[in-house]
Amino acid sequence: MDTLARVETPEGIVLSLRPAGLVSRTMAFLLDLLIRLALDLGIALVFGAAGKMGFGVILIGMFCVEWLYPILFELSRWGATPGKRSLGLRVVMDTGLPITPAAAITRNLLRVADFLPLAYGIGIVSMLLNRECKRLGDLAAGTLVVHAEPVVLHDAPPAAPPLAPARPLTPPQQAAILAWAGRAKRLTPARFEELAQLASPVLPGEAPRDATHGDSPRLLGVAQWLMGRRT
C-alpha cells in the first residue's frame, strides 16, 4: 500500500511525499523493460549483418541500454524513466530534492543485488518490509520513488499569482524559497520582506514591484511556481 512520507527541512518546514507502492513500481518496471527490449531488438537488427564488428556494437549498445537508460532519464528534468513517467512517478532524494548523479548511479548499480536470487526477489522483499517501499538501491542511495504530485507545504504560503524565476534555480535555492514561503505566518512582515530581498536576483524583472510590500509578492509567486502551479 502507498503511504505518506513527511520530510522536514532544516528551517522546520514539513513537506509531504507519497511513496509509490509495489504495484505501481512493478508496472513501471515492466513498461521500461519492454522499451529496453525494443531498443535492444532495434540495435540487433541494424548491426546484426555487420559480422564480428556488428556483434561487438550490439553488445556495447545493449550494455548502454541496460545501465545508462535509467540513469540518464532519472537525471533528466522529469526525474523518471518513461515507464515511471507514464504512471506519474519520479525519483527524488529522501529530502524531496531532485536526485543527484551519485545517487542515480548507486541505486541503479545495486539493481544487481536487488535482482537476487531471481526476478528481483530481494528487492521485492525489501520493499514489502520498508514503510516507504524502498529496495536496497534506494536504501543505499537515500532515494525515494514517489508519485509526482505538486509539493505540499504543511505551513502553506499565502496565495499569489505564479511567476517563473528569472533564471534556473539549483535544488538548494528552490528548497530555501519554499522554506521561506512556508514561514509567512510565523515571521513579522518586516523580517519576511527582509529575507525576500536576498532573493531579488532571481525575481522576474517583467513583473511590477509592489511599492507597499516590496519583493515579497513576487517571491511568493516564484514559490507557487516551484510547487507546480503554472496558471
Task: Summarize the topology.
Layout: E1 5-8, E2 14-17, H1 22-47, H2 51-74, H3 82-86, E3 89-93, H4 101-109, H5 111-115, H6 121-129, H7 136-141, E4 143-147, E5 152-153, H8 171-182, H9 189-197, H10 216-226
Helix pairs in contact: 1-2, 2-4, 8-10
Summarize the model shown.
With 231 residues, the protein is mainly alpha-helical. Helix content is 50%, strand content 9%.
Please tell me about this protein's structure:
With about 230 residues, the chain is mostly helical. The protein folds into 2 domains: about 5-145, no CATH class; about 155-225, no CATH class. About 50% of the residues lie in helices and about 10% in strands. The strands form 2 sheets. A 3-stranded antiparallel beta sheet has the order 1-2-5, with no helix packed on it. Helix 2 packs across helix 4 (about 100-110) and helix 8 packs across helix 10 (about 215-225). It starts with a strand and ends in a 5-residue tail after the last helix.
Helices and strands: which structural class?
mainly alpha
Strand order of the largest sheet: 1-2-5
What is the number of beta strands?
5
Quickly count the domains.
Answer: 2
Instruction: Estimate the global geometry from the Cα principal axes.
Output: elongated
Helix content: 40-55%
* Radius of gyration, in angstroms, nearest whole number: 22 Å
Q: CA-to-CA gap between the ends?
A: 32 Å
Oligomer type: single chain
Describe the sheet with the most strands.
3 strands, antiparallel
The overall average pLDDT, rounded, is: 86
Instruction: Bin the strand percentage.
Output: 5-15%
